Amino acid sequence: MANINGTIFNDNNTFNNGAFRPQINGTIFNDNIFANSGNDIVYARGGNDTVDGWSGNDTLYGESGNDTLRGYTGNDQLYGGSGSDRLNGEAGNDLLNGFGGTQFEYDTLTGGTGADRFVLGTTTGASYLGVGHATITDFKWLEGDKIQIRGAFSSGYSLVKTSNFSGGTALDTLIYRNGDLIGVVQDTTNVFSSDFVSV
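Given the sequence above, the corresponding structure tokens read:
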């Protein structure tokens, strides 16, 4: 595995990985990282970064800061980290996890086409407890989208479908864990307990 490190200033780095799989490391500042073709691993580090995975099955980590991660084609894994992040999987069967374990995280998750997984919990616990939540902009059960939670849906999760919380004029689905708002599925009430997978 090749490692490519950014320099210590506001970078605009373009990497064309060819046939190998590099690990690309950003800086503490605001980086623009374009991974191009291949299966890339990108650690954006600090700052408010923009990371484009382009083609290939990429793994993108925003880490700290308010980051924008775009997978483009391929089956990508996007991890926002701390801060309020925007994750867009685009084409492919993508995993989107915006949560970084802190309060006041308001992440936006867009799967794009394909069977995507939106993460609201991991084996370590439910995400977005306290102040903050994730907004899922394009949940489509017909494409095979799923929402991942910690534990069974019956263990304190509930759905509220009576308000237009954000997005367009349609009603949204609000996801609660023990009365704590952890997720908003925009512009649809076609979300049911069967759409959740537990870990």
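The first strand starts at residue 2 and ends at 5. Try to locate this feature in the token string yourself.
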